[in-house]
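Q: What would this chain look like folded?
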Amino acid sequence: MNHGPTDAQSSGQAFPCPSCGAPEMTFDAAAQAMVCPFCRHQVAVAAGSAAIAERGLEEGMASAQRGLGVETRSITCSTCGASVSFTGQVTSTVCDFCGSPHVLQQESNRNLIRPESLVPFQVEAAVAQEKFRGWLAGLWFRPGDLKARAAVGQINGVYVPYWTFDARADSRWRAEAGYHYYVDEPYTDANGKPATRKVQKTNWKPADGQRSDRFDDVLVPASKGLPPGLAEQMKTFDTRRLVPYEGRYLAGWRAEEYGVDLPEGANRAAAIMNAEQERRCASDVPGDTHRNLHVDTTYAERTFKHVLLPLFIASYLYNQKTYRFLVNGQTGEVTGSAPYSTIKIVLFVLLILAILGGVIGAIQAFG
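A: My prediction, written as structure tokens:
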């Protein structure tokens, strides 16, 4: 049974089989080992001896290793901009991310920062196909012919680049804390009679405070091929399962070169951490509500890793528009985009309005 991409069985020189001499073994997601496609001989991937390094941002660009450490070729898509690397003699005529045929073969960028670690594929390609079919079957308000017209022949497994960032955050905040109280207010009711009601008022008082927090493995997608919305949704990877980078894990799979560089990744991580610190400081403000919150955060002990995370990617066309579907290659979680059926949505709204009209009519009849 084939547990990886079907086109990954092409000949190459990187990892020959020691049993039958076949020219290329590939990493098998089910076996979690290198497997010969001919005699099924297995070879364990040796665990790296070095610990996974967290590199300081300031020295990261200067000291990080470059390239993928194995012989690769790449294609670059002129439609979405993704650059995908291949081991062995695998070739591709369409983009894994957007399905575009506008791809150009080129040499891999050997100056890119080498990944520190990766999460190996643990989901088989056949399982990913079933996930796609099940996902389509469970969609509501979609065109009736979607399942037939959205069929994809192959879902490709791609190691997608991410940056992870750690930091210690020290925040000082100030705000106005609001304390609710209630007063009796006179008014005239619907019958013209005087009455009173409770009205909420707020007493505002200045407040300030500070807190220290640690961030661990803040994930920032470095992919250029994935739409930002889908990339942000696919964040359920368990980074505790990262293993030291080893080129053999890439055998038979694809690996995207990062399109978001380290400085930009650090800026995006800072925005994520700033938003989280503002949320945390807001929860520290006493009282019932607050306003005019100002948070000043400084960061120390900032470190990063460049990691590869496993995704199965499918793209399909419907009415000349591209939609994408992703399967987490570690957990099997699914996410994707699909067209809506305007007719189904309108019919559903009309049904709801008819039900509400019936309920209101029944209340008026027996009221």
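The longest helix spans residues 342-366.
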